[in-house]
Amino acid sequence: MLPIGIFSKFCNVTTKTLRYYDEIGLLKPVYINNENGYRYYNTEQLVTVLVIKKLKLYGFSLEEISEIMKTPDDNDLFLFYMKKKQEDMQNKIKDYTHILTSLNKDIINLEKGVNIMAYLDDIQVSITETQPKNILFLRQKMNVSDYGGYLGRLYEIIMKDKYKTIGAPLSIHHDKEFDPENYDIEIAVPVEDKTEKTRELSGGLCATVLYKGPYSNLTSVYAKLIQWIETEGYKITNAPYEIYLTNPGTTAPENYMTEIYFPVAKK
């Protein structure tokens, strides 16, 4: 057995960290001397520390690592967690790539003396009279990062109950304020069949924008729309909604096409 100090030296982890791992149940010493409280570890636990360090390098939280280490020999479960982390990391790389592209464009514009928000001038707002839509819907208080999962659930219902879709998916934003962890969103798909699971999205006068670009820039479109509505003497009468005309799974973010609608009336 190795005392905690020697074990700490060999695995290059501080004794403070090892004590914390013991406290949360992640890595417990094999023996604790009742007289002096000294902790002792066996040599096999050096490999356990290496696994923990590797998982931390991959971005796993200690909570996730604790769950994985409950069954360290379950190769299928280990593989599941690793592939999920791989997917998360690939998505983050994708997000940062788009952010870097936007940053580079802004730097170029600034070097030319162009304001970085000048693109707002290219957003064209129009007024349109929309028609009612019969929608299959799922309204949920959700973390916005879980949106894709809930949309998947809606399409599972469509497949299971054999609904005939007649339009692109949309989301209706009901909250008065933005709470990304508990946001009131209604996810919907226009369908032909009218059932107890569907409702009518009413038509009417809307201020609208057709926007091409990543979803991260939709906030700018909202700002332009609200400014336009106020300037032109309209008022917002109902929850705004977005229609997603392109599939993000097969389309580059710079080519996403989104229609944004604000139901309005003249003041």
Automatic annotation (TrEMBL):
Ranges of residues in domain HTH merR-type: 1-71
Keywords annotated in UniProt: DNA-binding
Keyword DNA-binding among UniProt keywords: yes
A molecular function GO annotation: DNA binding
Family matches, as InterPro entries: AraC_E-bd, DNA-bd_dom_put_sf, GyrI-like, MerR-type_HTH_dom, MerR_fam, Reg_factor_effector_dom_sf
Database matches in PANTHER family: MERR FAMILY REGULATORY PROTEIN, REDOX-CYCLING DRUG-SENSING TRANSCRIPTIONAL ACTIVATOR SOXR
Name of the protein this chain belongs to: Transcriptional regulator, MerR family
